[in-house]
């Protein structure tokens, strides 16, 4: 269950989904033997309104879910 902003340096708690941005991230589990497909796991993450203005989430197989800064071009367009 979501309880706070996915940004580790932010302590904003989730109260309403109307502020911020919700992310649905599909992650692969370990590869199964006998030619079966890997298990896929879906998790939900939330960035609060303030963090979602300048940051986004991404999933990397080696590093897991990461918070990244949005490119400046996207931030300028959103501010207009």
Would you write up a description of this structure?
This protein is α+β, with helices and mostly antiparallel strands and 80 residues long. The chain has one domain (1-31, 39-80). The chain has two helices and four strands; from the N terminus they run E-E-H-E-E-H. The protein has helices spanning 49-54, 72-79; strands at 21-28, 40-47, 55-60, 64-69. It has a two-stranded antiparallel ribbon with strand order 1-2. It has a two-stranded antiparallel sheet with strand order 3-4. Strand 3 and strand 4 (64-69) form a beta hairpin. The chain is elongated, with a radius of gyration of 15 Å. It starts with 20 loop residues before the first strand and ends with a helix. 10% of the residues are buried. The mean pLDDT is 83.
Tell me briefly what this model is:
The protein is α+β, with helices and mostly antiparallel strands and 80 residues long. Helices cover 18% and strands 35% of the residues.
- Helix/strand class: alpha+beta
Helical content, roughly?
A: 10-25%
Count of helical regions: 2
Low-confidence runs of at least 5 consecutive residues: none
Strand order of the largest sheet: 1-2
List the secondary-structure elements in sequence, H or E. EEHEEH
Q: What is the total domain count?
A: 1
Q: What are the key terms here?
A:
alpha+beta, two-stranded antiparallel ribbon, elongated
């Amino acid at each position: 269950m979501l309880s706070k902003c996915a940004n580790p340096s932010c302590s904003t708690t989730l109260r309403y989904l109307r502020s911020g941005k919700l992310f649905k991230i599909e992650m692969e589990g370990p590869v199964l033997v006998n030619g079966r497909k890997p298990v896929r796991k879906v998790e939900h993450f939330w960035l609060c309104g303030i963090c979602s203005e300048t940051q986004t989430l991404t999933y990397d197989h080696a590093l897991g879910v990461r918070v990244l800064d949005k490119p400046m071009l996207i931030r300028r367009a959103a501010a207009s």
